[in-house]
Amino acid sequence: MDVSIAFNTLLLFLLFSAIFPLSSFSAANQPRYAKKPNTPSSHNHHLSSSAVFKVQGNVYPLGHYTVTLNIGYPPKLYDLDIDSGSDLTWVQCDAPCKGCTKPRNQLYKPNHNLVQCMDPLCSEVHLSTESTDYNCASPDDQCDYEVEYADHGSSLGVLVRDYIPFQFINGSVVRPRVAFGCGYDQKFSGSTSPPSTAGVLGLGNGRASILSQLHSLGLIRNVVGHCLSARGGGFLFFGDDFIPSSGIVWTSMLPGSSEKHYSSGPAELFFNGKTANVKGLELIFDSGSSYTYLNSQAYQAVVDLVTKDLKGKQLKRATEDPSLPICWKGSKSFNSLSDVKKYFKPLGLSFTRDKNLQMHLPPEAYLIITKHGNVCLGILDGTEVGLENLNIIGDISLQDKMVIYDNEKQQIGWVSSNCDTFPNVDRDLEGNFAHPYTTNLDIFGDRCPASYEETD
Ligand SMILES: *[C@@H]1O[C@H](CO)[C@@H](O)[C@H](O)[C@H]1NC(C)=O
Fold first, then answer.
1. Of 43, 44, 49, 214, best ligand 1 pocket probe by most atoms within 8 Å of the beta carbon
2. DSSP 3-state assignment of 134?
3. CATH code at 11-243+420-453
4. N or C: which end of the chain has fewer CB within 10 A?
5. Residue-range domain boundaries for the chain
6. What is any Pfam family matched here (predicted)?
């Protein structure tokens, strides 16, 4: 197919939340505005630091954004799909493997470092992925995992624990031992080509995520953010040092939401500044999804409004373009979104609980130009693909924004941002940092040139 749709939101929780809508979680036993007790790591705030990673990829044609992470000792580089819609990080495993797409020398080889099934982290993984049927027969059994994503792709494997070195912006390199999955049985959803990445970097806040593990070790504040450029690439950070001091729009996470994925709302849909009469949308912020998915009702409203608004303009439906369900062509083929922007109006999401709180979706945040020179709608019908009533804000709508998932304060924030400019610690951050700034990709680049080159 033309386009691979990375779509990594954890399926099992989606099913769960479809049965028990998030709004039915009682706020009574989880006061949203209660002050959090001081955890050990918040005492250590002055010690904790941040780490930043270069992001590669794009919405179209690749369909994913990735970071390259050093794992193991000696470290090897793995390109991982960044996914704020799931917790568990896994890499393709050098074991008899079904569905490994990388050459063998780029797979992760377990080295007597399997996590045992009595390890508390093992039950955390099972809590967040399979609800019940897990038992640990013998304490030194390995810890198996299985994750299934909303696009019906899946990974099955075993948990391992290994060194993942992080270069922090204070200059220190720390090598915590972190648990992650070694996946030896991957399935891909039928309609898309197998992902070219070595695995998934789960950015959720479940205990098993790398974010939570680094936080429990007192290394970072429980905050993660990304800035995905519409021109491809961008950056990802752990910790709170990169949060701009002003300009961010913050909205609270739905109670309990961050443990599985980050959601907020309810929101009302706007088209060209006027209400589209669609209200009560709960939104999952999901960097693992290339496109944005709305429930049928909201999707249909968008399609109707956009279609109606195109009447009399020079765009015709391009049903022969297989890239996405709805495409239009012009009299000449389009090269970039700037050729078509004038034909389309902005969409907007207005968060009904917080006054005047909006997410603006200019045409760039919901359209792509295909290699056939047509423009296509990057908002899809979620109900049709089995998401029922859920709504997913995917990469296309998160581009050129800094998006911050702040688990300390239980809020999600965003601000328009130029994601092409990698943050410069000396320029952008106050404080004295001991070393000139480097990215995490550079840590071992000079020492392991061979593995560095393998990543392309
Ligand atoms: C830098 O930050 C890391 C991670 O929080 C911490 O472990 C380390 O001690 C810090 N180094 C210095 C020199 O403060």
1. 49
2. coil
3. 2.40.70.10
4. C
5. 11-243+420-453, 249-416
6. TAXi_C
Q: What is the pLDDT along the chain (456 residues), one digit of tens a residue?
A: 233 344 455 443 333 322 222 222 222 222 222 233 334 444 444 568 999 999 999 999 999 999 999 999 999 999 999 999 999 999 999 999 999 999 999 999 999 999 999 999 998 888 766 545 567 888 789 999 999 998 889 999 999 999 999 999 999 999 999 999 999 999 987 666 677 899 999 999 899 999 999 999 999 999 999 999 999 999 999 999 999 988 999 999 997 765 678 999 899 999 999 999 999 999 999 999 999 999 999 999 999 999 999 999 999 999 999 999 999 999 999 999 999 999 999 999 999 888 779 999 999 999 999 999 999 999 999 999 999 989 999 999 999 999 999 999 999 999 999 999 888 765 555 544 444 444 565 554 433 333 333 333
Would the CA dihedral through 121, 122, 126, 129 be positive or negative? positive
Among 42, 45, 170, 173, say which to mutate for ligand 1: greatest number of ligand atoms within 8 Å of CB.
Answer: 170
- Kindly report the number of other CB atoms within 10 A of residue 416's CB atom: 12
Q: How far is the CA of 49 from the centre of ligand 1 (A)?
A: 6
Distance 48 CA to ligand 1 centre (A): 6
Q: How many Å lie between the centroid of ligand 1 and the Cα of residue 64?
A: 31
Question: What are 1's two structure tokens?
Answer: 């197919």
Would you call 385 helix, strand, or coil by DSSP?
Answer: helix
Rounded CA-CA distance 328/315 in Å is: 6
From 79, 81, 83, 94, the catalytic residue: 83
Nearest to 293 by CA among 210, 223, 381: 381
Is 286 marked active-site? yes
Same fold, 11-243+420-453 and 249-416: yes
Q: How far is the CA of 79 from the centre of ligand 1 (A)?
A: 25
Q: Which two tokens stand for residue 50?
A: 């941040």
Query: Which CATH class, in words, describes the domain spanning 249-416?
Result: mainly beta
